[in-house]
C-alpha cells in the first residue's frame, strides 16, 4: 500500500486509500487477538447492541424519523425512505443490521431469533433496496441448498408459504419503499434494472467499470490515486454512454471488491481469499446456512460497501478465532 502511495506522489487520497488497506489487516489481527483471548465476549454484548439498534430504528419509523439523528446527522435522499438508526443513511443502517445477522449466526450458540428480527428490520425498518436484495439472494441460496435434502422439503414449503403471507401483509406497510419498485422492475424484466433506475445504474457502473479496468490492465495494479479511476471511468462513459446514463465517478469506487481489483490488481486476491476462507474454514452445522452467508457477504462486498468498513476486519477476526470454540465443543 505504501509503495502505491509513493508511486502516486503521496497525495492525500493515495495515502488515505493505502491506509484503508493497511488498516484492514491490522484491525483483523487485533480483532483476532481480542476474540481468541476472550477479552471481549460477543455472546453477551452482541444481543444488547442489536436490541439498541432495532429499538432506535423502530422508534424512527413509527414515531419520529429524526429520533437520535442528532448523534450523527442524516444524509437521507428522500423522506419516504426507511429509518437510519444510529447510522447516517438507511443503507448504512441496513448494512449494520446485515453484519449483526452475520455475527449472531456465527456465535458459539447462534441467536437465530434475534438474527431473524434483524433480517426483518432490513426489509421493514431500514427499507434499503440494496441490502434487501442481498438478503433475498441469501435466502434464495439457503432454500436452494436445502431443496437437495428431501426430508426438509415440506418444512421448506411451509416456511415459503409463511414468508409469502408475511410479504402480502407487509406490502401496505412498505407502500412507499423503494424495494417494491426495484422488485417490480426485476419481476418484469431484470435486465432493465440498470437502464431504468438511476441509483442502480450508477452503482452498477462502478462495479462493471472497476472490474473492466482490472481486466483491461491485464490484472495489474493501477495504483491507489483517484486520478487513475476518474480517467478510466470517463473513458468508459465515452464508449458506452447509453448504458451508463446516470454514472459519475465520485470520490471513491462504489464497490469493495471492484475498488481492490482496480487499484491492486492480482494483489487484491489475498484479501478476497481471506474473507471467503474464514467462512469456509469455520465449522458449520448447517451447509445451507454456510453457503447463504458466503453469497451474502460476497454480494455485499461487490456492492458499494468499501473494504474500509470497520465491521469487515472485525468479522474476519471473529471468524478466524472460531477454532477455540470448535475445540471446546469436541
What does this structure look like?
By secondary structure, the chain is an all-alpha fold. It contains 16 helices and no strands. It has helices at residues 2-7, 12-37, 42-62, 90-105, 112-126, 129-146, 153-173, 178-188, 193-196, 198-216, 226-239, 256-264, 269-281, 287-302, 311-320, 323-328. The model is unreliable at 1-6, 168-173 and 324-330 (pLDDT under 50).
List the helices and strands and how they pair.
Blueprint: H1 2-7, H2 12-37, H3 42-62, H4 90-105, H5 112-126, H6 129-146, H7 153-173, H8 178-188, H9 193-196, H10 198-216, H11 226-239, H12 256-264, H13 269-281, H14 287-302, H15 311-320, H16 323-328
Helix pairs in contact: 2-15, 3-4, 3-5, 4-5, 4-6, 4-15, 6-8, 6-14, 10-11, 10-12
Relative strand content: under 5%
Provide the gyration radius in Å.
21 Å
**Topology as a string of helices (H) and strands (E):** HHHHHHHHHHHHHHHH
Distance between the termini: 41 Å
Structural category: mainly alpha
* Count of helical stretches: 16
- Helix % is 55-70%
Mean pLDDT: 81
Estimate the global geometry from the Cα principal axes: globular
Largest sheet: none
Q: What's the number of extended β-strand segments?
A: 0
**What is the oligomer described by this structure?**
single chain
- Uncertain runs are 1-6, 168-173, 324-330
Quickly describe the structure:
The protein has 330 residues and is mainly alpha-helical.
Amino acid at each position: 500500500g505504501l509503495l502505491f502511495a509513493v508511486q502516486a506522489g503521496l497525495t492525500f487520497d493515495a495515502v488515505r486509500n493505502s491506509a484503508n488497506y493497511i488498516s484492514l489487516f491490522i484491525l483483523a489481527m487485533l480483532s483476532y487477538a481480542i476474540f481468541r483471548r476472550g477479552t471481549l465476549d460477543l455472546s453477551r454484548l452482541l444481543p444488547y447492541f442489536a436490541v439498541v439498534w432495532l429499538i432506535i430504528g423502530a422508534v424512527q419509523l413509527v414515531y419520529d424519523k429524526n429520533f437520535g439523528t442528532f448523534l450523527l446527522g442524516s444524509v437521507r435522499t428522500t423522506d419516504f425512505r426507511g429509518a437510519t438508526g444510529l447510522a447516517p443513511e438507511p443503507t448504512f443502517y441496513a448494512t449494520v443490521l446485515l453484519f449483526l445477522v452475520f455475527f449472531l449466526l456465527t456465535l458459539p450458540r447462534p441467536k437465530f431469533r434475534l438474527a431473524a428480527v434483524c433480517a426483518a428490520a432490513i426489509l421493514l425498518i431500514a427499507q434499503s433496496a440494496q441490502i434487501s436484495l442481498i438478503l433475498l439472494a441469501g435466502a434464495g441460496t439457503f432454500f436452494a441448498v436445502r431443496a437437495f435434502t428431501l426430508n426438509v422439503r415440506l418444512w421448506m414449503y411451509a416456511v415459503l408459504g409463511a414468508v409469502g403471507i408475511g410479504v402480502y401483509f407487509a406490502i401496505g406497510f412498505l407502500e412507499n419503499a423503494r424495494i417494491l419498485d426495484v422488485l417490480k422492475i426485476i419481476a418484469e424484466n431484470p435486465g432493465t434494472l440498470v437502464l431504468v433506475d438511476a441509483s442502480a445504474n450508477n452503482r452498477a457502473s462502478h462495479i462493471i467499470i472497476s472490474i473492466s479496468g482490472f481486466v483491461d490492465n491485464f490484472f495489474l495494479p493501477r495504483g491507489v490515486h483517484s486520478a487513475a479511476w476518474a480517467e478510466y471511468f470517463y473513458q468508459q462513459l465515452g464508449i458506452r454512454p447509453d448504458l451508463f446514463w446516470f454514472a459519475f465517478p465520485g470520490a471513491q469506487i462504489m464497490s469493495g471488491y471492484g475498488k481492490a481489483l482496480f487499484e491492486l490488481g492480482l494483489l487484491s486476491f489475498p484479501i478476497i481469499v481471506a474473507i471467503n476462507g474464514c467462512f469456509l474454514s469455520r465449522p458449520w452445522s448447517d451447509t445451507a446456512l454456510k453457503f447463504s452467508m458466503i453469497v451474502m457477504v460476497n454480494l455485499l462486498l461487490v456492492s458499494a460497501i468499501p473494504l474500509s468498513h470497520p465491521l469487515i476486519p472485525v468479522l474476519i477476526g471473529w471468524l478466524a478465532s472460531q477454532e477455540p470454540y470448535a475445540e471446546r465443543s469436541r
